[in-house]
Fold:
Amino acid sequence: MSNSSSMAQFLLLALADRRELQLLHFWLFLAISLAALLANGLILSAVACDHHLHTPMGFFLLNLSLTDLGCICTTVPKAMHNSLQNTTTISYMGCAAQGFFFLFFMFAEFSLLTIMCYDRYVAICKPLHYGTLLGSRACAHMAAAAWATGFLTALLHTANTFSLPLCQGNALGQFFCEIPPILKLSCSHSGYLREIGFIGVTCCLMFGCFVFIVFSYVQIFRAVLRIPSQQGRHKAFSTCLPHLAVVSLFVSTGIFAYLKPPSISSPSLDLALSVLYSVVPQAVNPFIYSLRNQELKDALRKLMTGCFSGAIKCQFSGV
Structure:
């Protein structure tokens, strides 16, 4: 019998068996990660440099971009390395670190999405109280609470899961380290039930956040439909729809991945779903926000124009 103290490494799920497909997956992940790094980096720079985006929504968007970058940098590099080196191994400590940081950024992101929903609710339904309810100190406290929630939740699940004795082999059946596949390797009944209890409490909290988001958007849409001018309604929808699209993508992919019927489960489908909820949302979030947010588009255009002009000046000054 092996346990967590004697196990040296885990075996991750190979993205493909054929070498050509492994290299294809490497280049696809490289393209996705570079796009995510570039897009989120541009948003971070735009929010930091443009004073028009020094608003509560801009502040929370900056934090959201940080969580997206964290998720991408946690899961994708190891998958790319394994595809390039034709291996599936990850060390025990590396797996624990990957599992912790993935949970940390994912829970922090969901908390931030909930807070951003509250921001939209106050802005549209209680505009006269916006400055009072969402001042700079209140925003800082809410962002700190989101990060602290992610950290404490990830620490609790990771510490409990990786303290369990493991006796069901070391193959995870996932391309990155995640809590549920590791739980399947446990041979401690009490520890397994304890972690299931933790997961149940966490799911209840996340469901409460989801109910709050749904209730808030019901109130938001009712308030928007009462706006007399079409231009006012369009502006209100433009500020809400990107956030609603990001929340829908984040929640729907995760729910379907974990609650899909066992009858339709297969290794290839599970792999596609895991990529869909752990990589794709973090890569497309910046593009979703950039499509409808005119202030963000203007800031990005100004930033890119400034960078391009600076590069031209440097080139000519060098000549």
